[in-house]
Specification:
The protein contains 6 helices and no strands. It has about 150 residues and is mainly α.
Length: about 150
Amino acid sequence: MGSSISALAALTAEQAAKLPPASTHKDITYAKDIKPILEASCFNCHGEKNPKGGINLTTVEGVLKGGKDGKIVEVGSGEKSLIVEAASQLNPRSSMPPRPRAPRGGMAGTNAPAGGPPATPPPAPAKPLTPEQVGLVRAWIDQGAK
């Protein structure tokens, strides 16, 4: 299974019960409240350039459109929205950002030819959303995802 948000496995009932509660904030908007959260943690992989899984989170339209495998937001139901499930980090197979994998075989750090320039280090891993941020995304969806 790939590491795209669209390749989610459904949460078990026990995991769903552990979802962060929706925030009590009112009048949540994508531009004011949600975009800054997604920009900090999600845009490296789900931005305008080569969005993984076809999911572009840089606009409200992109979030609502979803990706190659379908929608990630069930407007009015944050609890059932794939983006909330992934951001909650409750299912290791569907967590976003993906959890680091163990290095594969071979010699670490040898992706540059001998005597050539040093390899460019990979970007810092994205930080998972906090439970409060997940709750804000959930409340935004519950309030109509505007």
